[in-house]
Every structure is written in C-alpha cells, then in structure tokens.
Write a structure and sequence with these properties.
Nitrilase/N-carbamoyl-D-aminoacid amidohydrolase; globular; alpha/beta; six-stranded mixed sheet; about 15% strand; about 575 residues
Length: about 575
C-alpha cells in the first residue's frame, strides 16, 4: 500500500510560477523520499536573469569583432557597412552610463582585435601592456559615439530618422578627426580605409578625404538599422524598409559611378621613372643587435648589387635598412651610387648639435631620409615630423620622468620642423617615413600641385608577419587618391608595392617562395604625369579637411543640444 501526501507550496516555487509541492512517499516497501530542489532552480533563474542583462554586452563584443573583420587581414569590407548599426542596436532604449558602457565594450573588443599585432613586438611583457592600454584608450571614441546617439534609436518621422542617421555618420567622422590629432594623433584604421579595395568608391576621397568614405559607410549602416526597425514596426507592409535606405543607396550609386568615370578618364602617362626597391627583411632583433651591423650592411650591399641595372633611375632603401652611417658605410654607398649612376633615397639617423647643448643631450637626433645624386653627393634631407608616441619620443618625460618606465624603447628623437621635397631628373618627390602616411592631413601638407609622387620608407618588421603590414598598406591607397599622385612603399619586411593616382595597387613584391615578407628586390617602371597633364590638384589637396571639420561642427551642435535638453 502507498500513500502520497501533499505539502505546502514553497515561496520560491511561487516566484518561479511553478506549482511545485513537496512530495512525501510512504509505502510498505523500503521508504523512498524525494523533493524538488527549488534552491537550485532559483539559482538557475538568477543566472538566466544575469545573462539577459549581459547579453547586450555579449552582442556588443560580437559587433565590435565584426567591425574589426572589415580590415586587413580578414578584409571582410562588407562587415563595415553593418557593424556600426549593430553596435547601436545593442544600446537600444539605453541612455547615459549604460549606453557608454555598451559602446566601450564594443570598442574595446574592436581595438583589441585590430591591434593584436602589437603582441609581435619582440620585447617581453611590455607589448601586452601597450596593447591593452592603447585599446582601452581607443575604446573611448566608440563609447562616446554610442552615448551621444543611443536611446530611442531610429524612431520618429522619416525626416527625423534621416537626420539621425546623417548625424550619426557625422559624429563618427568627427571622432576620427579628433583621433588623428589628439596626443600627436593615431589615425590608424579609419573606417574608410576598410574599403581600400573598392576603388570606384574611394575616389570620393579626392574631394572629402578618407572621412567621406567613413561617412558613407556609417550612414548606410545606420539606415539599414532604421530599415530593420521599420520592418519590425510594420511587418505587414511589404516595402516599408525601402524608404529608409533609398536616399543613401542613391547617393552611393552616384558616387560609385562618378568614381568609375574618374578612373576611366585618368590622363595617360607622359613620362616614367624606373625604380629599384630593396627589401632586406632584417628581423627586428637583429636591428637592435649592434654586433650584427657589419653583417647586415654587407648583406644589404650584396642584395642591392644584384638588384641594380643600368636602367635604374632611382634606388630605394627602406627605413632601418642601414645600420648606421659610418665613414666606411658612407664610402661604400657613394661608391655604389657612382658605379651605377643612380639617384638614391635611404633612411638613417641625423645628428645636429643643439644651440644650447648639455652634457646629457648634446645633439638633436632625427629620423631622416636622404637623397644622394649619381655623383655620390648629398642633395637633400627630410626629418620625420610625425613621431611614434612611446616609440620615437616619450611625452612629458621632462616633467614626468617616471613615464619612461612604461615603455621599453628609449625614444629620444626630435620632430622635424620643415617639409622638404626631393627634386631630381625633373621630378619632385614628397618623402615620408614610417607611419606618416596614415595621417591624411600630414600627407596633404607634403604634396604640392607640382609633386609627382610620394615615397614612403618604412620598417614594419616590428610586428613580424602580422596584419600590421596590410593595415598600413591600406592607408596608402587612400593617400594616393586624396592627393592624385602615385605612392611608392619601400618596406623592410613587407609589404613593398606601389599605388597609382587612383589608389590601385599596381605591383607588389614577392620573393621566390611567393611571400611578401622575404628578402629581395623589385625593378618597376612607374608611369607618371607631368603637372600640366594632371591638371589642377585634387579638391582635397587644395582645401584640406573641410568635410571632416564640418562634421566636427555638426557634432558640437548635437552635443550642445543634448546638454540643453538634459537641463530642461
């Protein structure tokens, strides 16, 4: 015989909405007793509630990673057209601190993924700290963007929604403008750079700079988000979403077709320059090892002797290829130049005695590019103006000496004050060193109406064979379009290549194994147009960041409106 008794319903069960009585089983057989453990169910419910609260942040992380995937090496450029809208979607109906936190989480995931190449720097400990610190700082920008735009996202009348998406794109551009200038600037991977292979689209950069491309991408992304919102509000209306994307799509089609026309109507070359690019592929650890200087230089000379032909007009050595300019190295270089009758541009340090020298710092040290003529004579020098923060200089070190302990690199370089051009054989060259070509406004300052080409000498060997080389390369495509002149890249370990005036990568170096990172050389003929054939300089080159500063103005107005609304 079995008897079942029904106990009281627990308070926990009532909260869960479950009829969960306590059971007692009695029988003549050996006694069995069991009860439902409502304490465990309550803990499960708590975990589910926590998940619901955290899922915004989880999706924000995924959206940030999707945005990172738009850049090299993944090169999923289409992700850039969706990810900004997804980031804002995570902050739907959120305001204030919560919106900021969601934006920050998305930004942190984005920049940690994008800057992971910092971990390749061959220094123990510090790369991890630098990677985290820089990503944490960069995440402030998307956090501000989400904070300013979040709330009742994509609601109201069609006109209001349209202004919201345009305003969101303007704020994004304004933040890129600030990022390119604040604390010496870090314009790495502006959103427009993700579209570097979309050649017809990026031609708009000749008018607006890279910021115009960034604006288009964000505008379309926010419009797509608004279209999804419209579809959810009116699921029975078949084409309700089309009104949200019609305007940006029309504008995009017009810009795309104008870009195609610009490419087709490019004037034919009326001259050319035969250039020898040498890529020594020196490991960064060897660059720091002074005992290898002689061996390095001999290998560089041997590689260059193999590369040079009697038809070469210009010889390029990348940044950090030359260990040091000793008397012996100087003699070897001049002998090489005279033997082959070539012009040469190479990189080394330049020392100039201070006007008021001290025992600790007698000389100003510059990261310099030199031009030598075929007679082996010095013909020009350019001192790098845009130094790498915590790499080539340490900010506030005189006021806060302890700052130097946060970097393994001693710094000590002085920023160059003047823009110098190199002139030879009737051509005018704008020299750039390292990551200077990521600064749109900086490169524009270097390119005059009669500048024939840009030459960038860089050492990306700091970061091994990582995405850094390709992210750096992508920026070069935009600089060529903005200024309407070809850009030549000579790199230590990749990626050595050149872009034409439309931002098309015409040729790229690969070694015998098909790798872009190996040692070797390339002999390329660069077609050029005279200033008369090119016509006027690009609109961007003549007028600068007019579009970017306009977006800064719009952002200032939106910010004032937000504060005024909050106070009222």
């Amino acid at each position: 015989m079995m008897m079942v008794t029904l106990g009281n319903v627990s308070l926990t069960a009532q909260r869960l909405g479950i009829c969960a009585p306590e059971f007692k089983v009695e029988s003549d057989a050996p006694r069995l007793a069991f009860r439902l453990d409502f304490a465990k169910l309550a803990r499960l419910q708590k975990l589910l509630e926590q998940f619901r609260r955290c899922r915004r942040y989880l999706f924000a992380v995924l959206a940030g990673l999707a945005l990172a995937a738009a850049f090299p090496k993944f090169d999923l450029a289409g992700a850039a057209w969706v990810a900004p809208g997804l980031i804002l979607a995570c902050a739907y109906n959120c305001t204030g601190g919560k919106a900021w936190r969601i934006g920050y989480v998305a930004g942190l995931a984005h920049w940690l993924a994008l800057l992971s190449w910092l971990l390749h720097i061959p220094v123990k400990g510090f790369p991890i700290l630098g990677w985290i610190a820089l990503a944490a700082f960069m995440a402030i920008y998307p956090a501000f963007w989400v904070w300013l735009l979040a709330g009742k996202i994509g609601q109201g009348s069609w006109l209001r929604r349209c202004f919201w998406s345009l305003g969101g794109a303007a704020v994004w551009v304004a933040l890129e403008m600030i990022r390119a200038r604040l604390l010496s600037g870090f314009p790495w991977n502006n959103l427009g750079v993700s579209q570097w292979q979309m050649t017809p689209l990026i031609q708009i950069a000749s008018v607006t700079g890279v910021y115009g491309v960034s604006f288009l991408v964000v505008w379309v992304s926010l419009s797509l988000y608004s279209s999804v919102q419209a579809l959810l509000r009116n699921p029975t209306t078949r084409y309700v979403w089309m009104s949200e994307v019609a305007l940006p799509v029309i504008v995009l089609m017009v810009i795309f077709n104008l870009g195609l026309a610009r490419i087709r109507n490019a004037p034919p070359a009326d001259s050319s320059l035969r250039v020898t690019f040498v890529q020594p592929a020196v490991p960064q650890t060897m660059i720091w090892d002074t005992s290898e200087n002689t061996n390095r230089f001999n290998q560089l000379l041997t590689l260059t002797e193999t590369a040079l032909t009697n038809e070469t007009d210009l010889l390029l050595w990348p940044e950090a290829a030359l260990p040091e300019l000793t008397d012996a190295n100087y003699a070897a270089i001049t002998n090489l130049i005279q033997q082959h009758g070539v012009w040469m541009i190479f990189n080394t340090d330049d020392f100039i005695e201070k006007s008021n020298p001290t025992t600790d710092a007698r000389y100003d040290v510059f990261n310099a590019a030199y031009l030598f003529n075929p007679e082996g004579q010095w013909s020009g020098v350019y001192h790098k103006r845009q130094l790498v923060i915590f790499g080539e200089y340490i900010p506030l070190v005189d006021v806060l000496p302890f700052v130097k302990w946060f970097t393994p690199i001693t710094g000590g370089y002085t920023s160059g004050g003047r823009i110098n051009h190199f002139a030879f054989k009737g051509f005018k060259v704008a020299p750039l060193i390292c990551f200077e070509d990521t600064f749109a406004h900086h490169v524009r300052d270097h390119v005059d109406a009669d500048t024939d080409l840009i030459v960038n000498l860089t050492n990306d060997g700091w970061f091994g064979q990582s995405a850094a080389q390709w992210q750096h390369l992508a920026s070069a495509a935009l600089r060529a379009v903005e200024n309407g002149v070809p850009l030549l890249r000579c790199c230590n370990n990749g990626v050595t290549c050149w872009f034409d005036a439309n931002g098309v990568m015409r040729e790229i170096f690969r070694d015998a194994n098909g790798s872009e990172y190996g040692a070797g050389f390339a002999n390329w003929e660069i077609p050029l147009n005279s200033a008369q054939a090119r016509g006027p300089a690009t609109f961007y080159n003549r007028n600068g960041d007019w579009f970017g500063w306009s977006c800064v103005g719009v952002t200032a107005v939106l910010l004032l409106w937000r504060f005024k609304r909050k106070r009222s």
